[in-house]
Amino acid sequence: MLFIAAQRLGIILVPLNYRYTSTEMLHCLKDVSPSLIIAEDVKFETQILDLKERVNTQIISFGSFFEKAQTISLEDFEPDFKIEKEQPIFIFFTSGSTGKPKGVIYTNQMMLWNNLNTAIQLEITSADHTLNALPPYHTSGWNVLLLPMLHRGARVDFISKFKPEKVLSYLQEQPISLFLAVPTMLRMMVNSKAFTAFKPKKLNYFIVGGENLSTQLIDAWAKKEILISQGYGLTEAGPSITSLHRHEALWKKGSIGKPNFYVDVKIVNDENEKVSNNEAGELCIRGQIVTPGYWNNTSYTLLKIKDEWLHTGDVVTKDDDGFLYILGRKNQIYISGGENIHPSEIEKTLYQIDGIMEAAVVGVEDEKWGETGVAFVVLQNQKLQKKEIRAYLKNNLASYKVPQQIIVMEKLPKSGLGKINKNELKVAFKKMNNDKKNFSY
Known about the structure:
Layout: H1 2-9, H2 22-32, E1 36-39, H3 45-52, E2 58-61, H4 62-70, E3 88-93, E4 103-107, H5 108-122, E5 129-132, H6 139-143, H7 146-151, E6 155-158, H8 164-173, E7 178-181, H9 183-190, E8 205-208, H10 215-222, E9 227-234, E10 237-243, E11 258-259, E12 264-268, E13 281-286, H11 298-304, E14 305-306, E15 309-318, E16 324-329, E17 334-336, E18 339-341, H12 343-350, E19 356-366, E20 370-379, H13 386-396, E21 405-408, H14 422-434
Helix pairs in contact: 2-3, 8-9
């Protein structure tokens, strides 16, 4: 209701990460200068009280907001606002991996073309039914399935918090036809005790994106006759940019598929020249699904969008069949002894090892090589030894790609969307070194 009213009135919605502290929220609020803040007063009472002392903007609860809305007579209310394609409907704040969170402008035009792209690629009809378990402060919670489904007249159910057992039960009991998840969610569901007896009524496939998906995880769901449609998107575009059709999920494991219909893509090197097949380069995107820019940040907009092309910062390759593969973020590639190393390639190899539940590789400073790799892993099989992991890596990767250190952790730090936070891993590694803790090689 709030979204529809906002679109009809030309109001910009700014969904804020409710995991933020009030200080982090204050940065976003100062950036956008909102006219009104609506919050769930009971759940976020502490943050609300703090913000009331630090901002001049009126803060009201959802309950009181809708109570006041019910007193308005629609007969006397005739908005003269005309919906324009360039009009922003959302400002989504990025995770802030490159500093303070930046507000990405999301327009009506982006929403329309993304809805069309998604509906066509996923073959969504009015008979479809999904469960939305992703947070509403991220573009994926709105634009991967929710709005495209509503655009097609399909049904969307909501769950406030992801719990693997509860979601498995819902997918089994309700006629859910497709479900959106990040790899961490699928992994938690597979490791749940309820997974063994899981037999959904109508579930056809999952839509998955966000980070590397292990072949073991793909196979685990395939045994349940559920295929996985992997894809790629980002806050600044789409987010429906590429898709791997579910029937190609087992043939092209690890691929993010091909570009969707209303998207232009190119892969370029550091000189902005197009690269050949199977050669690594930065993915660039052009089309009606690209943001016009960042809120109050012209300099960063000009840095990222050049001649209508959005430079994503993601390094990819394209095989001879036209399928794309993510190698990692451009700023996460590290150089060891003069060789460019893509963490994603090592992570995919780690996920092939039976007993590794989660894996992440980061580059750290090294006096001899400039940078070296450190692998952080979470084990499902506690009997698995680091020497066995190292041996497998040496047999499947060039020696310079094998991480110098392997660190076993109980869990890896995650973002609010469930993606592994590599910046936190780097901080943790530096702290471990400063504390002079022992590492096993």
